[in-house]
Design brief:
Layout: H1 2-9, H2 78-83, H3 98-103, H4 109-112, H5 119-124, E1 129-134, H6 142-148, E2 153-156, H7 162-165, H8 175-186, E3 190-197, H9 211-229, E4 235-240, H10 253-258, H11 261-273, E5 278-283, H12 291-306, E6 312-315, E7 318-320, H13 328-339, E8 344-353, H14 360-375, E9 380-385, H15 422-431
Parallel strand pairs: 1-2, 1-9, 2-3, 3-4, 4-5, 5-6, 6-8, 7-8, 8-9
Helix pairs in contact: 9-11, 13-14, 14-15
The protein binds ligand G3I.
Ligand G3I binds next to loops.
């Protein structure tokens, strides 16, 4: 039933900012990583710019990380490696992420951070970034921009995709992506680039290329885009959704012309293009006990064994009010086995759509329980919500992804009128260990 529903339904590091939380004893499964020992208080965190600061947030003012942190540290140094540390706590102090190990081993931030009133401050208490997908389409709306200040990490929803950034071969257009980055920098938020290689939102000129030309275009695209954003993003979704639901390689222009090697090539091109950002593989339905989750796990394991540069895995987490896809216990199994490979895991595109007898309280509980599973693990370094208001969720246009005969998806933390929903409290509670 679940598999059938799934087939029908889905086609398709990090340093806290600003909020000074005294590291408190971990009370969960955590150990005693030395909070506050992280290197690199952000070559990225404090960039002041002329972008739009809203709601009184200081432009670039939140860059000085007060605890932990690897965001600005060079890849290959302790920063990236340590954030990938799999233990709950006890991650080597002094390795650039000691703060993460100690503070987020359990729910230890709760006491010291009980006064946190924003999601980003609550996230900082356990040393993780709280992100949101933003789009230029709505940034000029004051309520949209004000709500965005709850977060300290931004993923551009569409503005860095291939069709936008390289609409003609060799002609790069960055205005759309730049606007998001400027907004983020003006409001003390870090940025994750999204996404370098995907089967969607591609320009048509790629279709005419043969194998060698396509591989060269892949390399040139990665180099061009990453060079432009070097120093302004802390991570990239390098490859997005390369596997199909049954765990096989997804049929796409990439797999058809280049075979599975395009994934590895993309990561190698990306590391060469910018050694200072984290490189993620990003996918959906890898949170549950599905073949696709196994395929991604095996790929990451292979990459780690052979030295293919990968720093983390994004579990998209487009989920539902029903306790499936993923059931929390299956999520935990997948989280822990990926973390054990020595990569970071992030929840990269979370939303919880109403299904069946969905209620506000069920949605709140789903958000809570899933976020709590991440918070309990130091290697789960960021949680990103895929949008701000229900009004603009991508799911509104995707009837194929909505639960048949069910309620409108309403999958986010603010309702159509920018009122906070119980789901907001569910996330806040989980971040504060409640
Ligand atoms: O740019 C055109 C615009 O010119 C035109 O007027 C308009 C008319 O509808 O369409 C615009 O393109 C839309 C684009 O977003 C930018 O707004 C596309 O129709 C629309 O399909 C596209 O949707 C995006 C979708 O990815 C594409 O697959 C969603 O905004 C975005 O939220 C969604 O995000 C993806 C992640 O990148 C990867 N993981 C899954 C996630 C949800 O599908």
């Amino acid at each position: 039933m679940r598999n059938l529903a799934k087939l029908l339904i889905w086609v398709a590091g990090i340093s806290p900012l600003g909020f000074a939380c005294a590291p408190s004893p971990a009370v969960g499964g955590g150990g005693a990583g030395a909070g506050g020992s992280g290197a690199a208080a952000g070559t990225l965190g404090g960039i002041a710019s002329g972008g739009r600061a809203v709601g009184g947030a200081p432009a670039g003012g939140a860059g000085a990380s007060t605890s932990g942190g690897e965001a600005g540290s060079p890849a290959g140094s302790g920063g990236v490696a340590a954030v990938a540390g799999t233990g709950n706590g006890g991650a080597s102090a002094g390795s650039g992420n000691g703060g993460g190990g100690g503070a987020s081993g359990g729910t230890g931030g709760a006491t010291a951070c009980a006064g946190a009133t924003t999601l980003k401050d609550a996230g900082s208490c356990t040393n993780r970034l709280i992100g949101v997908a933003l789009t230029n389409r709505h940034l000029d709306e004051p309520e949209f921009a004000a709500a965005a200040l709850q977060f300290n990490y931004v993923t551009p929803e569409d503005e860095m995709k291939w069709d936008v950034t390289e609409p003609q071969q060799g002609t790069f257009t960055f205005a759309e992506g730049d606007a998001i980055v400027e907004f983020a920098e003006a409001n003390g938020m870090k940025v994750k680039g999204h996404t370098l290689v995907w089967h969607n939102q591609l320009p048509s000129w790629l279709d005419a290329l043969n194998e060698a030309q396509l591989r060269a275009a892949l390399k040139a695209h990665i180099e061009g885009v990453m060079a432009h954003y070097a120093g302004r993003v802390i991570a990239w979704d390098v490859v997005n959704e390369a596997f199909d639901d049954d765990g096989s390689l997804r049929s796409s222009i990439w797999s058809q012309k280049l075979g599975q090697s395009f994934i590895e090539d993309a990561f190698r091109f990306a590391r060469a293009a910018d050694p200072n950002v984290k490189l993620y593989y990003n996918d959906y339905d890898i949170e549950s006990a599905y073949a696709k989750a196994d395929s991604v796990y095996e790929m990451v394991k292979d990459f780690k064994q052979r030295g293919v540069p990968i720093d983390g895995v994004g579990m998209q987490m487009h989920t539902r009010t029903t306790d499936e896809d993923p059931p929390v216990p299956e999520l935990i199994v997948n989280l822990d086995r990926l973390l054990a490979l020595g990569v970071e895991v992030v929840l990269s595109e979370m939303d919880v759509r109403y299904c069946a007898d969905g209620t506000d309280e069920k949605q709140k509980k789903r958000f809570h329980d899933i976020v709590a599973a991440c918070v309990a693990r130091s290697g789960c370094g960021a949680i990103t919500i895929w949008g701000i208001t229900d009004r603009y969720s991508f799911l509104n246009d995707r009837t194929d992804l909505q639960c048949a005969g069910s309620l409108p998806p309403r999958p986010l933390l603010w309702n159509d009128d920018y009122q906070k929903k119980p789901s907001f409290d569910g996330v806040m509670d989980a971040l504060l260990g409640r």
